[in-house]
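Standup notes
- HV: blocked on the assembly model, inputs below
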Amino acid sequence: MPCKSIEILVGLFVSLCIAAIFFLALQVSNFSALQDNGSYTLIAHFENVGGLKSKALVSMAGVPIGRVADISFDPDNYDALVKLRIDARYNKMPSDTSASILTSGLLGDKYIGLTPGGLNEFLQEGDTIELTQSALVLERMISQFLFNSSDKDK
Amino acid sequence: MISIRNLTFSRGNRKIFDNISLEIEPHKITAIMGPSGTGKTTLLKLIAGQLKPDSGTILINQQNVHQLSRTALYKLRKKMGMLFQSGALLTDMSVYDNIAFPIREHTQLPESMVRTLVLIKLNAVGLRGARHLMPNELSGGMARRVAMARALALDPEMIMYDEPFTGQDPISLGVLVKLIQTLNQTLHLTSIVVSHDVQETASIADYIYLISEGKIAGQGTPEELYNTDSDWVDQFMQGKADGPVPFHYPANDFTTDLLACNPAL
Amino acid sequence: MKLLQTIGQSSLKFLAKLGRSSLFLISILTGLAYTLSRPNLLIKQLYSIGVLTFWLIAISGLFVGMVLGLQGVYTLSTFGAESSLGIMVAASLVRELGPVVSALLFAGRAGSALTAEIGLMKATDQLSAMEMMAIDPLKYIIAPRFFAGFISLPLLAALFSAVGVLGGYLAGVELLSVDSGSYWSQMQSTIDFHDDIINGIIKSIIFAWLVSWIALFEGYDALPTSAGISRATTRTVVNSAFAILLFDFLLTALMYGEP
């Protein structure tokens, strides 16, 4: 029969370790950010997604408002179909909002930045963002630059 | 009560028992003796169903031990007590808890009843005052007495003693001998004592089996064996240094060995 | 020819041991109900396995975290990326070092103790005596120890990771003046709860299973002599280490394989 002190110590041990798990969940990971207040999905087509990955950030005015849920190839339009999962709190997006694929920093990860339009209609679940700007592919930029400079010389 | 018929058991290539048959009478003390290493402990394990024989049957109260289901075997074991050579007490429990262990596991008796039973068993072996000691605080003889009390905890019908007298001082020896005899009488037990201590065992046994080289070399009451015609039995019972079991390990002639030119021979 | 024979024999022995240990494991698992009906046994084992390993894991975690912090600043400063220290420390700990190192320490301390205890019980006939009293030692002795180990190790691994992150903070922010805000914020945005923390916990659960299984089986299977027991404890530590590292590789490949 274990005496009281052993039981107390075991209880202490278990609670300390569970506290450690909570610490890891809340302070170390993005658990709080994952609190699902509900979300809705928007669709956007891009000519070139560049290095955009699924779970990348979707932000507006620099503030994260959602994540990229899925990236797939659209065989009808021969472009990329990107599904965005937007937090349900931000449900007043004008229907002429535009989406661009931007790079965070100079060589950082790709993310999607949304710029609001001016219309009074709002995007609903499943709507498509019409205005999109694809990622800047470095090689294209360089070849454009070279093309332009050789043009100037002429 | 226990019938062993045509038992054969081998370990590896060695035949431990070769077609032996024994009868253990109820309410009597039967001793199984023999030289070291003849497999006396193995016989106890075979009787208890921990080992399976190659051929032959062991019947306890007409039940074939090795054909019983696991539950039936466990039920049978509750009626058997076994005393291991070292006592085999559970080292992380006190003496009291060791004896209470089988009672608590197999019955739903309230703690007050358990306490009564434990104290009765401890009193029978004379260790009631030692009940709060831990096994590592006990001497060898005391540990064996506690193990005896534990073996009696569930009031078994039979009890098996594995080398109970080995390595004990004269007083503990006397205590153990007295206990085995008294308990057998008062509790109407069937006792099997496995030993090679001839004097002590012969003083309390009702019937003795001598096992050597896998066969029964002799059997009878102690008086019969002391007055035997067989040289081997006589050497064993009297503890003679030389006889059918020779003193000298097989070797060449002594004079030849001493005077050999090549020391390697 | 002799080499082939030896390899063949060793493989057969290995398979036989695997078979015996699998049957052993199944008997333990069927003892779950028995263990739950006797919480005292479980609590006692949680104490001797979990609580007594607590300080080892906590202090090791602290030092590992601090070393990560120091080394991290030293390495990251060549890229001007000290602000990423938080990510580096947390990712290393939560994904790999936490589960693996705590499992290895656990195998060395608690695993070998379990093996020695069970081996000694076998050598002194305590297990036989219990069988003779019609009590199954697999259910009474072995199963509570298995489940206690199974519960303790994941908890200890989480403790290791948490203390390590704090150790990294101590070394990086307090000692080497890395910005405390960026330590936490970068960490929080990169470490994903599902991918990293849950995966780490899954890893340590699997390691707990392996280490407890190996430790108890080696004890149960040991030769009942003093040499046999010492060989068995050595085997526990060695085999646990192999198993942990092998499964770590397999699990990491599974979990982090595709980008």
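- HV (later): unblocked. The longest helix of chain A spans residues 4-28. Strands of chain A lie at 39-46, 57-60, 63-74, 79-87, 98-103, 110-115, 128-129, 131-133.
- Next: hand off to the docking folks.
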